[in-house]
């Protein structure tokens, strides 16, 4: 009897079934991606003369040139940081949407430090840029979360208004104090050579920021799933009332998650500016990264590793559409937004494919009963 | 220079500008309000406005009739609202996430559609679009001051104020409105009383999408006369903020929408002068929303705190 019991437990553990929630999530994700690609194909059929080739280019275009692969890796890192920041906030149940503005205003600090001869050391200079942006990011991200936690202000509206205000302040500071005479647009001075970030692998132009991202992701994963703070964040995100009754201070938690998110935004802004440009343009350089980060957090289900993978895949798709736009002008790169939107809506739907899973659960339950 | 700027603030023209700028914010505000009355926080107002602003222009361009454009605009708005209702109620997704996602890729979807039809990624300026005009009210327009304030506005502005009154009657004077408010106050009690909560919530979302889409159509077919990228620029959020300040009070809702419109008008007038930093003047309306919303929540916080102390 006992032998049979352990045996059935053993077999259940390794049986491929939809009742395994991780596997179910994975299957759900794959089906969502397939549906999104199918809809994309329909759209491509409508707009392009050669839809099969177009889809082929989107999916495999980035692999055709070394430059493209490098570009995907270089550009996805700041987005991954933005996604991690949004993931921490969403996981704690907060709806602070301030990442966009913080990226832009942190850019001012980065540009100011990077273009000033603060140090002659090429190791210290980028580090100072990072520290400045991270500190500012943490302080500014706390504002909406503080107002929400203390006075119950609508953090979503406040953070969005702050985004616009920060963008205006950034533009004002660059216009009045940092502009060079030579350029017509509002842009900062060129960064000094000491502020450049060295390459990890020169032929593909991959910078050492990739290592930073991996380290941060691992730390964040450990914090989220192995530490007391992470447990509190997850608990108050999934059941705020229960968290409150178990003595978790919602106020302290809101401040600490906002600070973490702000630091991550600072990292993302610095990485983007120091690896992908030689000067800072407030109206272009960092626009949209913060908002994309929120979508990535939803795609990655607020799980740090999931977010990084999502960031890579979305940037890969974006590179694919960029390659496609290069050869076929009828398909603009904005088609990525449609793919992204469909995937997000499907995977955040808890009832998507639920019937399939329930049938399987029922079948297994009946089998167990029969035993 | 400065004094002349300030003197423009006290003219009839300024009042007219405020009324013009208030229209989309009021549309957004009543759109948020009607959804909030059944307990739904519709934060997708901004994206609904974007979608229907584009749909309105394209509909008007393709059919050659501006009113057909308006209809297509609000059909698109209602469809977006139904999409939200489908995913949040039927599919069990978090409504806020769906709406944040909608807001985030609204601009990209609009640009994609725009590019397919016009070949331009920025505006519909190249399209010969029939637009809606202004309306002179026969007798009132001849009355000196009142005529200048009330007459000669865009048609959708009048529709807006009519809808404001109709919504007031619906919410506060009809049984349906009372049921809707009951859902917002306590859905479980409403359900016990035999009210179909989900049905009313979907209904309020549809109304919300309808109002928001008229705000978008107003921008593209009446006020700016074209669709351009990022044209909604936070006006939907101002409506949401007005609803946050109002906290269920219809008068305060309209008043705060009007205050935001005044700040927008001030910002537009002052940005024509070189005496002020152009970037910061542009952010004045956003700052006014931030400041008012924070102030009201702080006042409410201390009021409830004092109330608790007095109770004890």
CATH architecture of chain B: Orthogonal Bundle
Order of strands in the sheet with most strands of chain B: 1-2
- Biggest interface: chains and residue counts? A-B, 47 and 42 residues
Structural class of chain B: mainly alpha
Question: Describe it for me?
Answer:
The complex is a heterodimer of chains A (371) and B (312). Chain A has a single domain, classed as ABC transporter involved in vitamin B12 uptake, BtuC, CATH 1.10.3470. In chain A, a hairpin with a 4-residue loop joins strand 1 and strand 2. Chain A has a two-stranded antiparallel ribbon. Chain A is an all-alpha fold. In chain A, helix 4 crosses helix 13. Helices cover 73% and strands 1% of the residues of chain A. Chain B has a single domain, classed as ABC transporter involved in vitamin B12 uptake, BtuC, CATH 1.10.3470. Chain B has 14 helices and two strands. Chain B has a two-stranded antiparallel sheet with strand order 1-2. Chains A and B meet through helix 6, helix 7, helix 12 and helix 14 of A and helix 5, helix 11, helix 13 and helix 14 of B.
Summarize the structure.
The complex is a heterodimer of chains A (371) and B (312). With 371 residues, chain A is mostly helical.
Throw out a few tags for this protein:
heterodimer, A: 371 residues, mainly alpha, ABC transporter involved in vitamin B12 uptake, BtuC, two-stranded antiparallel ribbon, 73% helix, disordered N terminus, B: 312 residues, globular
Which secondary structure elements does this structure contain, and how are they paired or packed?
The complex is a heterodimer of chains A (371) and B (312).
Chain A: H1 2-14, H2 21-47, H3 51-60, H4 66-91, H5 99-114, H6 124-151, H7 155-178, E1 199-201, E2 206-207, H8 209-226, H9 228-238, H10 240-245, H11 250-276, H12 289-299, H13 304-327, H14 335-347, H15 354-370
Antiparallel strand pairs in A: 1-2
Helix pairs in contact in A: 2-3, 2-14, 3-13, 4-8, 4-11, 4-12, 4-13, 5-6, 5-7, 5-11, 5-12, 6-7, 6-11, 8-9, 12-13
Chain B: H1 2-8, H2 12-37, H3 45-63, H4 66-90, H5 95-118, E1 134-135, H6 144-150, E2 153-154, H7 155-173, H8 175-185, H9 187-192, H10 197-223, H11 235-246, H12 250-270, H13 278-282, H14 284-311
Antiparallel strand pairs in B: 1-2
């Amino acid at each position: 009897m006992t032998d049979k019991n352990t045996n059935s437990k053993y077999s259940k553990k390794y049986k491929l079934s939809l009742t395994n929630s991780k596997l179910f999530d994975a299957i759900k994700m794959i089906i969502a991606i397939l549906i999104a690609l199918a809809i994309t194909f329909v759209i491509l059929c409508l707009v392009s003369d050669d839809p099969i080739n177009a889809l082929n280019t989107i999916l495999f275009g980035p692999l055709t040139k070394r430059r493209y692969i490098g570009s995907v890796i270089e550009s996805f890192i700041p987005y991954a940081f933005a996604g991690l920041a949004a993931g921490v906030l969403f996981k704690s149940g907060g709806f602070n949407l301030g990442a966009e503005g913080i990226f832009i205003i942190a850019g001012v600090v980065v540009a100011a430090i990077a273009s000033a001869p603060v140090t002659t050391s090429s190791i210290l200079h980028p580090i100072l840029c990072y520290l400045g942006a991270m500190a500012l990011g943490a302080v500014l991200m706390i504002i909406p979360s503080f107002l929400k936690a203390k006075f119950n202000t609508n953090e979503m509206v406040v953070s969005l208004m702050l985004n616009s205000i920060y963008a205006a302040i950034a533009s004002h500071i660059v216009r009045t104090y940092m502009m060079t005479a030579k350029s017509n647009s509002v842009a900062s001075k060129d960064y000094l050579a000491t502020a450049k970030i060295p390459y990890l692998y020169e032929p593909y132009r991959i910078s050492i920021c990739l290592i930073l991202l991996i380290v941060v992701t691992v730390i964040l994963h450990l914090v989220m799933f192995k530490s007391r703070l992470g447990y509190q964040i997850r608990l108050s995100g999934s059941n705020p009332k229960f968290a409150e009754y178990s003595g978790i201070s919602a106020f302290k938690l809101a401040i600490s998650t906002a600070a973490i998110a702000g630091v991550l935004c600072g990292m993302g802004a610095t990485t983007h500016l120091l690896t992908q440009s030689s000067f800072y343009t407030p109206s272009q350089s960092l626009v949209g990264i913060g908002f994309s980060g929120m979508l990535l957090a939803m795609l990655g289900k607020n799980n740090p590793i999931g977010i990084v993978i999502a960031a890579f895949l979305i940037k890969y798709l974006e590179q694919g559409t960029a390659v496609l736009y290069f050869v076929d002008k009828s398909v603009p790169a904005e088609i990525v937004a449609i793919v992204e939107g469909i995937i997000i809506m499907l995977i955040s739907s808890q009832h998507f494919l639920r019937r399939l899973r329930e049938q399987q659960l029922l079948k297994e339950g009946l089998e167990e009963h029969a035993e | 220079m400065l004094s002349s700027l300030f003197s423009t603030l006290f003219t009839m023209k300024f009042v007219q500008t405020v009324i013009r700028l208030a229209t989309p914010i009021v549309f957004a505000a009543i759109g948020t309000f009607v959804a909030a009355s059944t307990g739904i926080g519709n934060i997708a107002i901004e994206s609904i406005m974007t979608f229907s602003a584009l749909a309105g222009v394209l509909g008007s361009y393709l059919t050659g009739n501006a009113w057909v454009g308006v209809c297509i605009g609000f059909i698109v708005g209602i469809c977006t609202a139904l999409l939200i209702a489908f995913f949040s109620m039927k599919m069990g997704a978090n409504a806020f996430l769906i709406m944040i996602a909608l807001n985030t890729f609204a601009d990209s979807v609009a640009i994609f559609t725009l590019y397919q039809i016009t070949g331009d990624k920025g505006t519909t300026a190249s399209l010969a679009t029939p637009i809606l005009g202004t309306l002179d009210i026969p007798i009132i327009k001849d009355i000196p001051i009142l005529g200048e304030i009330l007459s000669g506005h865009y048609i959708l502005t009048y529709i807006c104020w009519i809808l404001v009154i109709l919504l007031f009657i619906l919410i506060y004077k009809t049984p349906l409105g009372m049921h809707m408010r009951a859902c917002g106050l306590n859905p479980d009690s409403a359900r016990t009383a035999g009210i179909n909560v989900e049905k009313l919530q979907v209904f309020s979302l549809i109304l919300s999408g309808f109002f928001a889409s008229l705000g978008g159509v107003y921008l593209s077919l009446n006020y700016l006369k074209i669709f351009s990228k990022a044209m909604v620029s936070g006006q939907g959020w101002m409506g949401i903020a007005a609803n946050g300040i109002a906290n269920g009070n219809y008068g305060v809702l309209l008043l705060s929408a009007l205050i935001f419109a005044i700040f927008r008008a001030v910002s537009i007038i002052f940005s024509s002068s070189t005496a002020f930093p152009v970037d910061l003047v542009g952010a004045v309306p956003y700052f006014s929303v931030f400041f008012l919303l924070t102030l009201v929540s702080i006042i409410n916080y201390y009021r409830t705190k004092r109330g608790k102390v007095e109770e004890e």
